[in-house]
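Bump. Still looking for Asparagine--tRNA ligase structure tokens.
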Amino acid sequence: MQIATVKESLTKLPVGAEVHVRGWVRTFRSNRFIALNDGSTVANLQCVVNFEELPEDLLKRINTGACISVQGDLVSSQGQGQNVEIQVKKLEILGDSDADEYPLQPKKHSLEFLREIAHLRMRTATMSAVMRIRHNATFAIHKYFHDRGFYNLHTPIITGSDAEGAGEMFRVTTLDPINPPTTDDGKVDYKEDFFEKETNLTVSGQLEAELGAMGLSKVYTFGPTFRAENSNTSRHLAEFWMIEPEVAFADLDDNMDLSEDFLKFVIQYILDNCVEDLEILDKRLADEEKGKPQAERSEQGLIERLKFVVENNFVRLSYTEAIEILRNSKPNKKGKFKYKIEGWGADLQSEHERFLVEKHFKSPVILFDYPANIKAFYMRLNEDEKTVRAMDVLFPGIGEIVGGSQREERYDVLKGKMEKMGIAEEDLWWYLDTRKFGTCVHSGFGLGFERLVQFVTGMGNIRDVIPFPRTPGRAEF
Ligand code: 4AD
Ligand code: MG
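Sorry for the wait, here they are.
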């Protein structure tokens, strides 16, 4: 007798093997079959039980959601889509589940409903497939960088600086937030705070990753980041995971090459290693598309979309060229964008980004050389003194998936920029120091992990690709 997962039972073990499998009852029918799932794979293990031989009190406890243990022989199956099933000789209930109370009935539930029961939704076929893909993407990311000589750097979660200078931070304090102690002039007295200074949850590990690159040459972070922006969209979370490579001696072209190669590698890894999960998500997406009006339906299925990205070059285009295209475009029937193009210098709305990617080029696009005044202080100023060496990678169905830049490595220029943007030197003296002692050209970018998982799983809402989403008003579990 061998303890095995559902996946091992279905794919690795020979017919005739005696196995012991544990999992949760997905469905049961005809008084003979139990569909058992343990999350190891999409498929259920069909358990063939002679219900008539089971004692009445045990029989009553075989309910959807119950945790059970079965022992028996693997035999060839006549059932559709499975080669083997288990002929059960011994069945035990490990954990009961009251059929009337269990929220996951054996029927299709909406994703909105599943979000309300996030503590149980990983038992569904869709959510468990998403979570297995999320894991595989994590693994592929570490593999990509490790194989190319990058070192993983753990950057702090609690920090005294605002890496993006956008003021969207969550405070971390041990003081009474309502009535904090104050100094004589009425300001918060941080002497009594744990860190003796104002601190927040990090919005990005970039500044510390730059310090790492200035000693280790090639580093990357992969950690949680936090944004207190009140964006209730399908692509924003208050807590999300970001991957931030930072490379010494690399310019913006190297950075664009790295982002494209990296994204293609991770997507190819998922295509190669998550076939069953992709297939059921492809089917889910196709069903969803069927419900949409013809004009809004996507031309490609999920797997086709992924292959397209891997097999084609991303379009590279300057911000200035993009503005020209947008100005000369007629996106909807009335020939208008919902948000007008304000002209050169304005930030692009996601509507504009998605027009470029989904309608105009029908391909991922890397936009570069943005106006300096709509981008962060640390980006390298171009010779025209109007634009910076910034880049955003835009994906179909997602919009911005990566944001990055070549960094301003010149001490005087950086210091001048910080002054102009009102960033205090005493907060970032350590960052300026790297420009004082052995500065060099360097670049990096940040990939929003959940946006990548959205793309590879075809899930429309970012809340459905992270186990426990943090959004405005929601942090229960
Ligand atoms: O464009 P962002 O703000 O860039 C940075 O933070 C840089 N420090 C990165 C770097 O150069 N090292 O964020 C990077 C990416 C975005 O392109 C997006 O994919 C994701 O992070 N992102 C979010 N994902 C989910 N929810 C949010 N609220 C996000 N904000 C940004
Ligand atoms: Mg950005």
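Residues 163-164, 204, 206, 227, 236-237, 240, 242, 244, 400-405, 444-446, 448, 450-451 surround 4AD (ligand 1) (CB under 6 Å).

Edit: fixed formatting.
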